[in-house]
Amino acid sequence: MTARLALITGASSGIGAALARLYAAHGYDLAITARRAERLDALAEDIRFAAGVEVMTLPADLADPATPRALVDQIEAGGRQIDALINNAGYGLQGEFGERAWAEEQAFVQVLVTSVCALTHAVLPGMRARGFGRILNVASLAGLIPGGPGSAMYGAAKAFVVEFSQSLHLEARGDGVHVSALCPGFTYSEFHDANGARATVNERFPAWMWMGADEVAAAGYEAAEANRPICVPGAPNQAIAALSRILPAEWGMALMARQGRRGRNI
Prior knowledge:
266 residues; alpha/beta; Rossmann fold; 7-stranded parallel sheet; two-stranded parallel ribbon; 10 helices; 9 strands; 51% helix
């Protein structure tokens, strides 16, 4: 019997790489994609040795609107079907909205929002027809709290992913397809190195607010298996999310204004 296959985006490092290792440990073959081919190849070699599963590496840029369909077509052309989709690819932008070229903003929305929808739209019918599927969308705690200065696009994109996942969870729940949104807070990964915020976040946020990528990945996997619509890993993050639900909107925005840019792009 052929193993189930998981497609994982943004798999070259951080939470994506941790999720790849975790799904492989649970017997899934993998199709992993990111822009950095050499990182994908190194990860694939490690996973094949450790878990003994098949791993396809698919270097690609999700900022290209044609990429989601091309990835699915490439996998299906090899005679495989996608049983689990992990939409993890993402990054943050530095600066306030309007300071960057619109092309940068368009690419950002394409990666964090449109590609999530496009890949999900491509794989969902097959999952429903087979009566099995797992869709894990990596969102953020930023999608559950009021927006703050310096994160207009990031918080909005992650809020979209959260609500998209919730609605899809309800639509697919009778079909054997589990849909969950993973909403981590600060996570040790390359995320803040890529957007140039590493020194700032390390200085301003204490160690107890941070989680490891493996911890976050494990929480996401468990949530997807249990079919929980939202997973917020870590007690501090859960407390922040709960507080944001009960505070009046004006109070929440006032708190974010006081924090300034401290909490952007988590």
